[in-house]
Write a structure and sequence with these properties.
mainly alpha, Arc Repressor Mutant, subunit A, 8 helices
Length: 166
Amino acid sequence: MSEWYKEWYIDRRTWLLVNAGKLKLTPAQFQILSLIDLLNERRERITSEILANLSGMSEAEVDRIFSELTERHFLRIEIRGNSLRFRMEGVFRDEVIAPDEMPILGEFEKEFGRTLSSNEISRLIDWNEKYGEEEILDALRDASMYRKLSMSYIEKVLKANHEKEI
């Protein structure tokens, strides 16, 4: 793996900004990655509390974003003695990993005509565990057919269809 991103003339935060869409970063993920990069550059201590204070998010929200970024291999948190080290090399790989390799995610993004938010992805994951992919896709088709593309409407359809089957 080439370490081009470590060259002195590379502005990693600008690169993140330009590539946030291709990386499918949510605004919150972008903000946390940028803050981590800044604090790493300044060799300052990084904790979820510090990031929460700097970003205006809650610590729970920052921890959730850590999990999302770690799952996608964009962030690696290492324990060094009594401190944490935040490594971002995964963001700069040549191959981009799309969030959640669920094919259903692509279907939703295609129907909605946009990238789903992290909250919408979380709801989709929860539904997938509860209802299964086929039921979710049926509900998405119904919502699309009636031109009511919203997660709330799809959830109502899912619940109604699930109750009919019981």
